[in-house]
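Dear support,

I submitted the protein below through the web form. The confirmation email said the job was done, but the results page showed an empty box. After a refresh the structure appeared. I'm attaching both so you can tell me whether what I see now is the final result or a partial one.
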Amino acid sequence: MSQSIREKKEQIVSEISELIDNSKSLIVVNYQGINVETDTELRKIMRENNVNYKVLKNSMVELAMKDREAEDFVQYLEGPNAFAFGEDETTAAGLIKKFIKDKKKLEIRAGFVDGTVFNAEQVNALADMPSKEELIAKLLGSLKSPVSNLVYVLHALSPSTKFTHLVKAIADKKAEEA
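What the results page shows now:
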């Protein structure tokens, strides 16, 4: 193998390693049978959601995964694969699962999420989970609810006009924030 070819391959492996390091999730997808129009649509969806979607050589991904103690991951690197690198744990898997549901063209093979290898079934389960931001929003909503309810009850029971206006102002402010 000539030196320039070797250097190019090392550069590709380095770029893939950097993608893996900068991503929370890596989803492997069998894209066999997908046409250009469908692939373009998928790439657009991925790009809009900050997911890096690439078709890469399995051997290059395997070399990039060597230092990550993910020997189980290599078994999924057969045939035509595309790789989705997500900024969070669930977005890439969720987008792919939704795309499969709508188009029935792809097949999830595996995932590598926060240093753990996931099989297709586990990736599908991960895809059904809400994102970290959604979970935080739900938590904050459930924490805010009792306080808001208390303010409304105090407002309803309050005989004092000054207190009523104060409680109403707090309630209005909370409603605006929500």
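Response: this is the final, complete result; the empty box was a page-load delay. Residues 133-177 form one domain.
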